[in-house]
Sequence to fold (637 residues):
Amino acid sequence: MPLLKILHHPDPRLRTKATAVSTFDEALSEFARNLLTTMYAAPGIGLAATQVNVHKRVIVVDISEEKDQPHMLVNPVLEPYGDKIKGEEGCLSVPDIYDSVERFEYVKVSAQDVHGEPLQFTADGMLSICIQHECDHLEGKLFVDYLSSLKRGRISKALRERAK
Amino acid sequence: MTEPTAKPAKGQKINVRLDAARALTRIIGQHRTIEWVRAERPQWLQSPLHTQLLYGTLRHYLSLGEALHRHLRRPLKDKDLDLYHLMLVGTYQLKYTAIAEYAAISECVNGCKALGKPWARGLVNGVLRTMQRDDNWRLDLAAVAALDHPPWLRSLIAKQYPAEADDLMAANNQRAPMTVRVNRSRVTPEDFRQKLDTAGFEYQQGPWPEALTLDQPQLASMLPGWDQGACSVQDLSAQHAAHLMLSALQTNTSAPLNILDACAAPGGKLFHLREALADKGVAHRLFALDDKEKRLQDLETIGARLGHTTYRYEPEHGLTGQARANEAIGLLCIDGCSPNLPFDPPLDAILLDAPCSGSGTIRRNPDIRLLITEASLLEQQALQLRLLQNLWQHLVAGGTLVYSTCSVFAEENDQVIHSFLGATSDASAQTPAQGYGQTTKYGWQMLPTDPLTDGFYYCLLRKQAVQDGAANP
Fold:
């Protein structure tokens, strides 16, 4: 099973808005497993389909230390609530850049699993932050968008230079 | 998304308080042990401060917890156990260490962010600052060791040791001594003592030439000749095993004695036995079992350092087929309870250092007091009895079995022997008591209040010479 290639900012394909998944077949399960393997190998704690140039609403997340509590979410819908909290974030598509971003403390997640079964849960702490971060990808949004234009410019420039 | 703690930037620092809190959350929340942390998360115990904070907080977990609770306006939610532990590590530092209080607190506050709970910074800061200003809780905590034992443990100690209960619990909160066993196959005790003297170590001589108790515990690797296998670290109580075995052996036969260590890993008593048998010139073959392959591999590594060669015992070659007497130790990965133990002809002597609660080593392993339960003592008891009964069948008539545990509770000691004797007609028990500790109905109980020993239990079981040999497999 080959690892998927992760796109790097400022790749315009990262700005694509993903479409909903309607077919729940073996190909979808396999893609989700590939996505998870790619995330673990990176290593990361969350990865969205958008980041590997597949524009379907699929994200995988695992914040556990043992890497044994994966969430594979299809068509996720979020209802964030609670206070805004600030936390440090990094992104596999924005390598080696870390900055503090405001997110909601809690999030109510409604989604489907890879077989199309509906699931619902509430997340907080790092899991909440990570799910919000991945769902942003499905909208074509990156965590750097929350930073000041000065910082954003600096980051784009640094990454462009590194890519050369 | 990547983990914020993966940040490699210049600002990255090891947060010892955070590491300690994470280790605590594994131990308390997921019933892991310090041993697990050492094997799986060595970075959480990478410095002496790491060890001090984790061990110290575990030792005083319950009493510090009470103090902390009084300063929390409302209890934290279950999912915030990591935050609770971060504050507890802070509380430990305020009470028991000389670490500058502002530093202790600010490091704990910084830890919140890495836990993904930056919202808690104010809470952690507020609670710890209040505790810093308030001296009452620190005075309240003045040396009441009983408070650091869960209530059931407290009452069991009081029931079994009515006269010594307070001293015993106080001893459980002390730091353990460090005793060294000179490897007599490598260096004479005289030479080793000289090396210690030259290196400036102070020590007391134990009851045998090879036992030396250091005045100040040291890193083992700092001891003279450590890498060359000149010595091992082994508590005095555990060093009795080899000497008891030696005193019980019938050494007047000319054939080499076949001796088994039935729960051998990590091999301390096994290698000591090897060194003692060689020193006394007793012809022997040693065998060792453990049911975990990984633990046997660790045993091999330790053996290699000490210069004790080992081989994998293959039963089809028989007891004598693979190694000559007095040479390598035969290792076998198998459960001592297995019905197919490959020992035929039967063994001359068996050491059964049974798995146990470890209640005699609480001062060494402060997690034990929080992890064991009354039910777990009875589970251990059942296992100990099964091991004993199974191994007994492989002991030659007239042979000796040394039973030991590092527990202070009768459940794992006299009660096991009592049940065993009740069901076994060809066994008799002999208490090997010497000098200190307590003589029990069947055995010898050492306590951590005894000079220089952990809590430890020994019983010598002798198999009567029966004519029909019915107990042999």
User: Anything to note?
Assistant: The interface with chain A takes residues 1-4, 6-9, 79, 113, 115-119 of chain B (CB under 8 Å). The CA atoms of residues 20 and 338 of chain B lie 39 Å apart. The domain at 4-142 of chain B is CATH 1.10.940.10 (N-utilizing Substance Protein B Homolog; Chain A).
